[in-house]
Fold this protein.
Amino acid sequence: MAFPDHLPPLPRDRSPGIGCIGAGFIMADCHLPAYRAAGFNVVAIAARRREAVADVAARYGIATVHDSAERLLDDPAVAVVDIAVPPDVQPALIRAAAARPHVRGILAQKPLAGSHAEAAEAVRACAATGTALVVNQNMRHDHAVATCRRLLERGDLGAPVLATIEMRAIPHWMPWQERQGWMTLRIMSIHHLDCLRGWFGDPRTIFTAVRSDPRTAARFAHVDGICTSVLQYDSGLVCTSLEDVWAGPAREGAEGDAFVRFRVEGTRGTALGTIGWPRWPDHAPSTLDWTTTAGGWHRPRWPEAWFPDAFVGPMAELLRDLEGTAPATCTGADNLMTMALVDAAYRSAREGRAVDPREIVGEDDARGHSRPAATRRKAMRLGLINSAFAQAGKGTRFGLEQTKRLGFDSVDLLADPLVMSAEERRLIPAVCRELDLPIVSLCCVSLGLIDWNPPIRDCHLARTKAHVDLCAEYGCTNLLLVLGEYVWQKECVPPQEQWDLAVDACRRLGAYAADRGVRIAIELEPFHMSLVNSIDSMLRLLDEVGLPDTVRANCDISHLHIVRTPPAEIARLAGRIEHVHLSDCDGTRHGDLPPGRGVTPIADYLAAIRDTGYDGTVSVELEFAPDPAGIVDWVAEAHDATAKIMADLGCRR
């Protein structure tokens, strides 16, 4: 099996001048050694303690030492500002850096601020000046954590079922901690909560219980010492996070047992990880072991450790974003949901209930801390439905290899489990694993689900369940389901009967899919007699099926344009979009053309989808190319046009 790459991609251009603010442990022992190893260009440093900053500058050969942060920010050689200061000081520095025209990007420490509301102000300041802001949530770039994410993305573990992060270690609390009024949730738990968000997205609720740490309570008062949280997701996934900063009386004479471990269980595999920072200053590389239903254990080992090697990742993200290679993922905008999750954890502990993080966001918006447009930009993937190559007579491997080569993030399959050979069934996941190309969706056209003849309905129900089984086998997120049309112009079979048959079929399929960790995405078709051909009929079907976590909507952009649905109407589907198809058309007929070859206002539709909070996959759908021999160019044109739209909207991962 091909192991995922455990190292972050580096920027092509490592010349932008980096100015560092801070000279404490994180900067001196984590940031700067990582930057030196990666070849990043640190040109200046400033810190409050002059002796410390002079020593750090000498250790790393930094040519310019400024006597204040303000002087450093005024230095025209500084294009990127790297901030490592306490969270109650950081927001003002972010705003000051964003106001300097020569500063193109900022890397800020976590927590971004002391609350979601404060963080939103800092993010808005950067958005107003067009300054890129990345947050140093470096656990996402730990080598075991990043590899686990790639296993999830390419489907090796199947649909996630349960994930746990367990920390039992004694941190070194900094002196500035005493004045904050809070402790573990914003300093330690935030790593784990953000890691879970990086793996699985935003949870529906968080429930947190806390107590004080007996050892630290002797130094200063606090509430959130030892913390445990339960995160629940719409898919049914449950995650737990435990931060035991007491870890027994190890400082009082007992033997110690410090560790950080994580475990992710899916429908097809289990991953077990360790993180070595509790053994600092010893160099302790993180580890990841995983097994799948194919059998056996995979146990790669790497020389890198979280401290300091993972600190390359956030700065590399920022520099790659600035050079246009790839958009950053740990942005200030994205981090606002991590901040909201932490604030929700405090509220949960205080009020003894599960809290939806969107409560925090909504209340801050109502108080005037509204998020700038950039903070609503969700990180979507760009996928391709493989029928583009199949319709041109190209083989499976060829199509998948070209999909990866052209730059798509994932693939959707048009494949029938009742027709495909056993060899083909094995080939598809093997090639996708080899290419690190996740399979996100499986398309199923099942018109017989609403046939008036029970044997035909039963046959199509069994066939669609076989598609669901294949989704689970391949680790797909969803099954794309096309229900079909009313027959005989609604004159012979009462249309309500066919509608009721659709509701019953979707309900039965939804329950079957939920048991297998798969969701159903209902296609909106642009045809006059289609059961679902408008947002009204889509919402009616979803409401009557009554499985909001499992049976959801597919937004097909050209279909919406053909039926004259304005982009603003997509807001009605907020929270209910499972998948997106993208193509162009002439405005009247089903066409599935590359963007730019028709009249569909694709950017307007995609912006509206982004603003619902959707952060899944946008899959390009192409019908027959005018010249099958030129199919690669046809698909490349569609990829490049879509990638540009997504880049302009800031919505691609």
